[in-house]
Fold this protein.
Amino acid sequence: MNRVRFAPSPTGFLHIGGARTYIFNWLFAQATGGQVVLRIDDTDTGRNTDESLRSILDGLRWLDLPWDERHFQSERRRSHVEAAVSLLAAGAAYRDFTPESDGPATPTGGNAWLCNTGMRELDATESDRRASAGEPFVVRFRVPRENPKGVAFKDLVYRKQFRKYADIEDFALLRSNGQPTYHLASTVDDAELRITHVIRGQDHLTNTFKHILLFDALGCGRPQFAHLPLLLGPDGSKLSKRRHGSVVSVTNYRDQGFLPQGFVNYLSLLGWSPKNNREVLGIAELVSAFRIGNVLRTNAVVQVAERPGDIPVDPKAVWLNGRHLRSMPVDDLLPFVERALRDMGWWSDELGTTRRDWFRDAVGALRSRLNLVSEFGVRCRAYFRDEFGYEAKAIKNLDKAGVRRSLHLLADRIEAVPVFSEKSVEHEVRSLAEELGMKAGLLINGSRAALTGQTVGPSAFKVFTLVGKSRSVNRLRAV
RNA sequence: GGCGCUAUCGUCUAAGGGUUAGGACAGGGCCCUCUCAAGGCUCAGAUCGGGGUUCGAAUCCCCGUAGCGCUACCA
């Protein structure tokens, strides 16, 4: 059985690139009947925060793509240290007593740094003596550089990969404080958690050679690797909160009113496509269309709307979300709308009980012109509240010659109508218009303006039934 | 600096030797219409540059260029 893992480190919020990596892992697992392991890579104790752990978990849960197992890397430390000790004993690793330097070792010229002079060759007894004397050291992997060949593997996305031993530096396994490094912990855990496919960002492509060296030295089989192209900001640089703002944060999309499936659909199309021009895909369709081999090798740009007033995300994401919002079963949409209304303080429990049918009807009618769940809260006030304002355009419609007077007459007709329905309302509106010798459109648009304070919305006759008979009559008289 | 990855409309992408280089978002226009959407139609818009290979190259090869990644006792 295939097993994949998503291994975020809790040093920041869940960002869109991490979410996409999780989605691709999840899709791959579902498509191949495999399992998803969520592993929190918390080996950098100094930078971990509970807040970011919460953000990551919140974000992943919102995606609604459940994982099968969860592990914390910090709880597996003993395994990591044991691995380092055995590597040391086997001579595949060595102690490096070079004092920690400040900042990254940027090579000044010529070739890259490979190892600290003298340490690789240190005699075993001498090394033991200095270690037991309490001298701090880091444990490094001894890359077999005398071998003129190198490491090769076949990436499921980037195909054949090769790197000479001579180009791989002696990376650290254990820090001088005894903590395992990412390379060690990740490799040991992938092996022990029986991960079969490592699907992660392309920024790890060159790390993979080190990991393979470790898998081999540890005597465990190698998993398969698939690296994903990176997500870039509109300026072409790697996405970062500082440079690109809230577009990178998953919770931002949730708060802006995205549906999980709309967001997942959007991210799935960044660096992958089903190759048949289909774009609007539900989760089940994504699973059946997903092929890891169809993942692109080119980095994708996450667009940001530039028009003032638009929410600062990719307009295509909004459009995609709208497609889902409009086509999903209304009953599935209801909980999301409920949440949006609760956020506005407009929710009342009857909407879930005695007025549930009305609620379903209203959501069904209103959603046809919305893209985001949050728009139920910001653009549909008159349907959920009695007090609402009139937009300037609406007032303009009401101010047209004879409109207000006609609407008052209409109120009487509506009040007297025996059966209050879209059909009967339409009949009353049209016949009144005809009697008064005015264009029906004036009355129709005037009604919408009077009932909702807006010039946009569902069919005016539908608006009447949504607002209800007595409220409609009151609102017509109020203008 | 070293090592590596990548390069098609503004953006996401299709076409992996032969197509008027296709679709989608965004933009323009038209239709539909009680408004706004939706929907339908339509216009504009791309193969980074240069060499090869080939009857034929977006596609294969080489060289440039650009972007990105790695080059830490971060992950």
User: Anything to note?
Assistant: The two ends of chain A are 68 Å apart (CA to CA).
